[in-house]
Every structure is written in C-alpha cells, then in structure tokens.
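Recall that a protein's primary structure is simply its ordered list of amino acids. Everything else, from secondary elements to tertiary packing, is in principle encoded there. The following example makes that idea concrete.
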Amino acid sequence: MEMEKYKPVMALVLLQFTSAGVALFTKAAFMEGLNPTVFVVYRQAIATLFICPISFFSAWSKANKPSLGIRGLWWVALTAFFGVTVNQNAYFKGIDLSSSSMACAMTNLIPAVTFIISIIVGFERIKRRSLKSVAKVIGTGVCVGGAMAMTFLRGPKLLNALLNQDNNTWLLGCLCLLISTFAWSSWLILQVPIANHCHDHLYTSSWTCFMATIASLFMALALGNTDLHSWKLDSSLKLSCCIYSGLQLAVSFFLQAWCVSRKGPLFSALFNPLSTVIVTYFGALYLKEQTYLGSLLGALAIIAGLYIVLWGKTEDYSEEATDLKLQNEHTTTSQSDFVPIMIGDRAFSSSELLEPLLM
C-alpha cells in the first residue's frame, strides 16, 4: 500500500513530538518545584511497571526462554547505572539549570560522542583514504565546536531579552547535559556486550529499566531526598508530568525499535533535530526561555555536524549489508525478507528487530 511506506516517517515525527513534550513538560514541572532526581525515580518506575509485564508474557510464550547469565546481568547493571541513571539525572538536572531547548540541542551530539568512544574502545576505525571516514571526523569536530559555542559563546539575546539568568547556573546546566551525552553514548556502546549474552531486546530492556529504577532511588536518597515532602506530587502538573514521561519512555522503546527494524538506525537518527526545533519554539513562547545568538549558531553547527557524521556512517552500513548478504547466500536462500541492520558493531536481521530494542 502507498500509505505503508509513510508509517515509519509518521512514527518518527510522532516520537520527536513526544520527546519534545517531555522536555517542555519537565521544565514546567521543575519550575513549579518538582525535584529532578525524584522525577527520574518516578519516571523509571512507571516505565518499569509498563514494560516488565509485557516482557514477562513475551518471554513466557517462547519455547527458548531468554537468559542473561551472571556476566550478562553485570553488563546490564553497569548499563543501568551509567547509561540510564547517570544519564537521566544529569539530563533533567541540565534542563532544570539551563533550558529545555539547550537539552534537546545537546542530544544531537550523541552520534559524534559515540563515534569518539567507539574509536577509543576499538569498535571504529578511521580509514584515511576514505572520504566518508574523514567526514565522520570532521562532523564530530563540528559537533564539538557547536557544543562549545552553545556553552561559552552565548552572545546577545534574541528572545525574552528582559529576563535574567545566572551565568554560573547556565554553565553548570550545560556541564550536566554534556555528562548526560557521554553517559547516553556509553549506553549505546554497552549494548554490544549485552547483545552477545542475550538477543531478546525486550527482556534486556525490562531488566535495564528495573535496575535503573533501583539505582535511581538510591541516588535520590544519597543526594538528600530523604524527607517525604520532596517525594510528594502535590499538583496535577507534577503528577501528569511523571505519568506522561514514564509512559513516553516505555512507548518510545517500541516505536523506535519498529522504525529501526523497517528503515535502519540512520533513518531514525535523521529526525532527531526536529525535537530541537519544536522545543526551541515552544520553550521561548510558553516557558519564556531565553534564546541567545551563540546558542542558536551552536545548535545549527551541532545539527550540521550530526548529518555529516551520519553521511559518513552510510559507508559502514552499506559495507555491512554487502558482507551479510554474501554470507547469507552461502548459508541459506530461504530467508527472502532478510534485511541486515547494524546496531553498534553488531548486525541484526529485520526479523530479529521486530522485538523492541532499547535505543
């Protein structure tokens, strides 16, 4: 059907709008007094309550029950702490201290930061004679330069110029967002060893959510949130923010996994800047967030660098697809719907990715 090919596009656009809604919704709730670390606990708990029963019934219906093993559980625990708990706490604290538009712009750094970490751990190699390999390096540099411009070169105010904001608070918020970016990139890298231990992505996602909820609770208590008052959701805005964000986190797992299975990870990443545009517009309009010339130029540089990195990554995916196609021809010719897709340095078929993948 003609409409069928537009479904991934509509799903990704919807996903970007819901992600933008989380950034705007949480900023409004933080302005009303919701504690970011407490919010992370509620969000993770709601997502866990939503995804774990689905994972249980999915695993129970299979002949071969999924299992992580002791080593796999250690990898999941490490991922839950750094890739989810640290990531979420730093991200929402960054929103609280800076702005929702800054937070969404910084998320476009993730492919570039992941590329840097991949080189360090040996998952990526730079081919000096390859134009697209050089493009990844250049795109990463442009992204880093854009992030520095957003953080340190604020420049004149373009919108809401009469409002004042502490410069130290802004810098601290940007630092939190950078920490979140590195933590989220480490989550992507850690998916490689986790996938080696268990191929059921819904099962590993549910374990990650559960462990992240526990880790987030301990972190919130360690940061001084021991009194009941800080845990009270005493307004409809705070309560609806936690419920919406938790459900959005769980639903996004399914939407993004389905889109990756249909179109691949590169296609999905192309839509990420859309949430930046949405949040920048509505943040300035309704939350009265300040927009600076330096921040705007830095965000544009990050988006440009993102697309340069993604263009450079097309060579990796096309090479992997060719190699897998040749291997598949030697092993079997019965899988006519085999569509190789690469997540990290691990290749999956489209049939494997029909189950949810936490991205």
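The longest strand covers residues 157-159. Residues 293-331 form the longest helix (39 residues).
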